[in-house]
């Protein structure tokens, strides 16, 4: 009777199955050519010994770790955790595992990733637009493909999958114009990003084209609490806006809370508000926020497809994919 051995090795499995150690390695290597008879012998021996293949050892043989590094700015924002789950699920379908890579803020207030290469990742999916460009340069040096998720860092050799932010901005301006808004503001955070700038440009350009009036841009903060003071300044103006397009739902909710609780404004009668992201709270009865929904499920699927194709085919061709963002009208616009 064979008693399962603690920490059984491929050598133990080979001995019990009556095959070579290299044959055991090939059996557990997807796509390898091994007869069904041999596979069954190896699997039976592995089950008897309670053997599990060592992923790290296999990576040394195949030169692939089957790990994809996921780099995210933070998981506090409601959509980030959902996005992590979506990407991880798509990676599992392709036989890859996700590794959440920590980031830190450097002396220039840019997000950087220490020792990224200690994770031996085959590729990186990055969802922060504020990383130091050295990340992309180092990945290129080591031939590690990078796909930017819902973000674009200009001047880097990496693929990206984003929503059409410029068109979303245009749609917001058209909706305000149709609903009688005559004075509009684009309320944004304090961190410049390409996608946010596109959203702002589409909104401001379209609003001016429709009304012959400029939409002012106000920089607050992406953080709910830190945005409150700047919002109070905006609403204290004699000629306060009657329409505000917010860079995120988080900012929109801060605006709505201040407008109603501190200034007694009625939404949408006195102030129309549009957000961006369609986070779960946007649908809460207290907000019912008109906003834009990014197709994160498809963004995740396309990002994973690109990174897997680039790894498996050793293809360095850059892919730039843009998906529409859909406007969801609720009760903060007329």
Walk me through this protein's architecture:
The chain is α/β, with parallel strands linked by helices. It is built from 11 helices and 14 strands. The chain has helices at residues 10-17, 21-27, 36-49, 55-62, 78-93, 134-141, 165-178, 194-211, 224-236, 249-261, 296-312, and strands at residues 67-71, 97-101, 104-105, 111-112, 123-126, 146-149, 159-163, 184-188, 216-219, 243-246, 272-274, 291-293, 320-323, 326-328. The strands form 4 sheets. It has a 6-stranded parallel beta sheet. Helix 1 (10-17) crosses helix 2 and helix 5 crosses helix 11. The longest helix has 18 residues, at 194-211. The radius of gyration is 26 Å and the shape is elongated. The model has no long low-confidence stretch (mean pLDDT 86).
Give a quick precis of the structure.
This protein has 334 residues and is α/β, with parallel strands linked by helices. The protein has helices at 10-17, 21-27, 36-49, 55-62, 78-93, 134-141, 165-178, 194-211, 224-236, 249-261, 296-312, and strands spanning 67-71, 97-101, 104-105, 111-112, 123-126, 146-149, 159-163, 184-188, 216-219, 243-246, 272-274, 291-293, 320-323, 326-328. The strands form 4 sheets. A 6-stranded parallel β-sheet has the order 2-1-5-6-7-13.
């Amino acid at each position: 009777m064979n008693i399962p051995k603690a920490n059984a090795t491929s050598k133990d499995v080979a001995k019990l199955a009556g095959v070579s150690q290299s044959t055991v390695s090939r059996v557990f290597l997807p796509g390898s050519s091994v007869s069904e008879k041999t596979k069954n012998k190896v699997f039976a021996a592995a089950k008897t010994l309670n053997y599990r293949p060592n992923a790290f050892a296999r990576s040394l043989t195949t030169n692939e770790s089957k790990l994809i590094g996921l780099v995210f700015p933070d998981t506090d924002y409601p959509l980030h955790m959902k996005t992590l789950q979506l990407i991880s699920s798509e990676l599992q379908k392709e036989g890859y595992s996700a590794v959440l890579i920590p980031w830190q803020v450097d002396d220039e207030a840019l997000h950087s990733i220490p020792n990224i290469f200690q994770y031996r990742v085959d590729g990186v999916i990055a969802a922060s637009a504020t990383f130091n460009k050295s990340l992309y340069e180092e990945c290129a040096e080591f031939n590690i493909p990078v796909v930017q998720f819902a973000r674009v860092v200009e001047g880097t050799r990496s693929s990206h999958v984003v929503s059409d932010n410029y068109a979303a901005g245009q749609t917001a301006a058209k909706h305000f114009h149709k609903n009688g808004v005559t004075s509009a503001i684009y309320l944004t955070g304090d961190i410049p990003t390409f996608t946010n700038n596109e959203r702002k440009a589409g909104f401001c350009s379209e609003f001016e084209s429709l009304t012959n009036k400029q939409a002012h841009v106000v920089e607050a903060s992406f953080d709910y609490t830190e945005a409150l003071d700047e919002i109070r300044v905006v609403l204290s103006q004699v000629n306060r806006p009657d329409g505000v397009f917010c860079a995120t739902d988080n900012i929109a909710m801060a605006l709505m809370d201040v407008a109603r609780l501190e200034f007694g404004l009625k939404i949408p009668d006195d102030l129309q508000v549009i957000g961006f992201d369609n986070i779960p709270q946007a649908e809460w009865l207290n907000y019912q926020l008109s906003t834009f929904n990014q197709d994160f499920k498809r963004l995740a699927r396309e990002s994973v497809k690109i990174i897997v194709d680039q790894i498996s085919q050793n293809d360095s061709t850059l892919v730039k994919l843009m998906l529409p963002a859909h406007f969801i009208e609720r009760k903060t616009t007329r």
